[in-house]
Structures are given as C-alpha cells and as structure tokens.
C-alpha cells in the first residue's frame, strides 16, 4: 500500500489485480508513530465482480501463432517484466496527481478479455490511448527510468519506477528519448508514439502496476486528481 499524509490523515493506494476473486478480503494495516509505538487494524475490503467486456480481433497468423523461437523469446521477456514488477523501491518518487501521458482518449479500455483469431488470449492489462505517429509521450508522474527495450508484443518500451511499488509502462513507441537510470519529472518527454511490436496502428499502450497488481490507469488519474501540491 502507498500511504501519503494529508491534513493529519493518511491516504493509501492499494492495487487490486483484475483477476482478484470477488469476495470480502481482510486488509491488515500496521502503523508506527514517532515513538515507535505500533498500531494494528484489520479491515474488510469488498472486491466486487467487474465485467470488462470481450474484444475480438483478427491479426496476421505470424503475430498470433508463434514459432518455438518466438515463444521462447516471449517467455524470457515476460519473466524479465515480472521480476521487475516484484521489485520495491522504499522511496516515494511520485508526487501530486498522476497525469495523462498523451491527450487522446481511450480506444481500447482496460481489462478487455481478448479473443484473437478465434483463440482466447490474455486480457488487456492497460489502456490504449489515441495518438498520432510521432506525438510526444510524457511521464505520468516523477520517477526513474527502470527499463528500456524492444519486446515482441509491446515493441519499443519504457517503464518508469515511481517508488513504493508503482510502475508505469509506455508501449509501441517509435522513438525513445530517455536512458535507463534517468530521473524524470511528471510531464517529461519519454519518447514518441509509434506502432512497434504487435500493433495495428499508431497509439500508446499505457499500463500501471501497483505492488504487482494490474490496475486501470484511468482509475489512478481519477483517484489522485485532488493531490495537487
């Protein structure tokens, strides 16, 4: 959980993955005051069922029916990403409200269950935003560039570590304008919109992970819009 003091209270960001079982889940909160006294509270958090919808796509078979070599590559890339998202920087780099990386609205929403060429595939773990080829892609908040690479599915990619378990992803770029290890502020230019990787046209795929959970980036915008500093 990400906590932030505000008006002598604390607000938290808790990531609930799209595949979390609908039920009442116990949430344990442990806090320590300035005198190192520990306070513990157990709350009940209700996770409700969500219908994200279904998307049916037709793509060239070379992008769907992968050969053994490509499957091996995809597996390596997935393991690398999972290892990254399991990391935790014990420092809050983000501040204030999260901002939209491009001005365009969503073309493919978060959570869609995808059927590609008649085959069930992984759900859409981010949001696709409308943008023209070459448009600027901006950092949604301050952080450190944790990874830059070109992946089979996501093409030219940039991932920011915002600290305290929050990561943001920017996929299908045509050009990357930062380097791994760079510290960036909210609104800094990371690269340009493209259509690299498995993509049917120029757009930005924007994703958010909070302590490993896949969450809707647009929900994060709504939840933090009051955090103007």
List keywords for this structure.
10-stranded antiparallel sheet; Glucose Permease (Domain IIA); 17 strands; mainly beta; 229 residues; globular
What best-fitting shape do the alpha-carbon axes yield? globular
Helix content: 10-25%
Low-confidence stretches: none
Structural class: mainly beta
Gyration radius, to the nearest Å?
Answer: 19 Å
How many beta-strand runs? 17
Kindly, what is the distance between the CA atoms of the first and last residues, rounded to a whole number of angstroms? 21 Å
The top level CATH class name? Mainly Beta
Q: Kindly state the mean pLDDT as a whole number?
A: 90
CATH fold node name: Glucose Permease (Domain IIA)
- Beta-strand residue fraction: 35-45%
Order of helices and strands: EEEEEHEEEEEEEEEEEEH
Quaternary arrangement of the chains shown?
single chain
Q: Quick one: CATH superfamily?
A: Glucose Permease (Domain IIA)
Task: Characterize the largest beta sheet: strand count, sense, and whether it forms a barrel.
Answer: 10 strands, antiparallel
- Given the structure, what is the number of helices? 2
Number of domain units: 1
What is the structure about, briefly put?
The chain is mostly beta strands and 229 residues long. Helices cover 11% and strands 41% of the residues. A hairpin with a 5-residue loop joins strand 3 (23-32) and strand 4 (38-47).
Structure description:
By secondary structure, the chain is mainly beta. It has a single domain, classed as Glucose Permease (Domain IIA) (Distorted Sandwich). It is built from two helices and 17 strands. Strands 6, 9, 10, 11, 12, 13, 14, 15, 16 and 17 form a ten-stranded antiparallel β-sheet that branches. A three-stranded mixed β-sheet has the order 5-7-8, with no helix packed on it. Strand 11 and strand 12 form a beta hairpin.
């Amino acid at each position: 959980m990400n906590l932030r003091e505000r008006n002598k209270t604390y607000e938290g960001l808790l990531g609930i993955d799209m595949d979390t079982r609908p039920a009442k889940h116990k949430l344990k909160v442990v806090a320590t005051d300035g005198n190192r006294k520990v306070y513990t509270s157990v709350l009940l958090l209700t996770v409700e069922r969500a219908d994200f919808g279904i998307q049916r796509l037709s793509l060239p078979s070379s992008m769907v029916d992968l050969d053994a070599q490509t499957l091996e590559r995809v597996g390596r890339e997935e393991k690398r990403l999972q290892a990254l998202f399991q990391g935790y920087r014990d420092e809050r780099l983000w501040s204030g409200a999260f901002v939209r990386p491009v001005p365009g609205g969503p073309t493919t929403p978060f959570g869609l269950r995808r059927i590609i060429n008649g085959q069930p595939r992984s759900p859409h773990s981010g949001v696709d935003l409308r943008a023209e080829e070459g448009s600027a892609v901006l950092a949604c908040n301050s952080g450190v560039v944790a990874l830059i690479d070109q992946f089979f599915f996501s093409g030219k990619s940039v991932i920011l570590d915002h600290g305290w378990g929050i990561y943001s992803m920017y996929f299908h770029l045509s050009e990357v304008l930062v380097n791994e290890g760079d510290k960036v502020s909210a609104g800094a230019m990371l690269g340009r919109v493209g259509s690299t990787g498995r993509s049917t046209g120029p757009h930005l795929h924007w994703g958010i992970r909070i302590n490993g959970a896949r969450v809707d980036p647009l929900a994060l915008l709504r939840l933090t819009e009051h955090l103007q500093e």
